[in-house]
Design goal:
With about 325 residues, this protein is an alpha/beta fold. It has 12 helices and 8 strands. About 45% of the residues lie in helices and about 10% in strands. Strand 3, helix 6 and strand 4 form a beta-alpha-beta unit. The longest helix has 18 residues. It starts with 14 loop residues before the first helix and ends in a 12-residue tail after the last helix.
Length: about 325
Amino acid sequence: MPTTAPAFSDATASDSALRRFLHGLPGVDAVGLEARAASLGTRSIKTTAKAYAIDLAISMIDLTTLEGADTPGKVRALAAKAVNPDPTDRTTPRTAAVCVYPDMAATAVAALAGSGVKVASVATAFPAGRAALDVKLADVRDAVAAGADEIDMVIDRGAFLSGRYLKVYEEILAVKAQCARADGPDARLKVIFETGELSTYDNIRRASWLGMLAGADFIKTSTGKVSTNATPANTLLMLEAVRDFRAQTGVQIGVKPAGGIRTSKDAIKFLVLVNETAGEDWLDNHWFRFGASSLLNDLLMQRQKLSTGRYSGPDYVTVD
């Protein structure tokens, strides 16, 4: 089956060819990677640049609720917050998207109609991905039929870790096919690796290339449901992958770190990583997102601090 990268068609021709390609990628210098991520995290961002970074980070958030207790009312409230994060300041940017389970996608679509805020739906038996392929594909079809603009799928980590790369590749292709629409733009596909379960940086690099070869529109670190989620080091590694992929194919792929990014300081560190690794072309919410639920509140508090010189009281922002 075709991929988005014809230059690599030979690499995906068979299981053995894909294995040779992925294991032929340069090994990751873990010490060097972590040292560079830590070094970039010390950059000092002040005043005007900080205000710009905070607004940019707000505009990149996939405001997320993925709980068993989610209700239509909660989703509508989250949608209202995404459209108007700070009711006292209408200059505050809207978030990029609201991310929900497939059964809540229609509610989110209705609540966000005409706003420009996208609806992202997790799918493929999120977060574990432990289901038969036909069940996963039905999950995606339901979300797309409900109007979701974006699909966040999880890879089969068991297959990946046991070296069945072609199975993972073909599953991503199958999900990508379900994102197509006859009567409108296709849903964009974000492929979640759950980097905390991949064990090594080499595996994260291989998963990044595997996802991109299979047609991912975004590669995403985590579900937010395990102990180790997005880190500066694993996000830096994925940013290097999308940069190198575009250099070789001309195809630009987005990156979404998710889970554990809770403060403005954290978000700005990630934006520095983007600028210094992939470049300015990725400093846009079409190409970079934060998967987060609590990050927005801290960004709003810091934004008001820059504007007024003081922090608000604890009732300034809504509790999600």
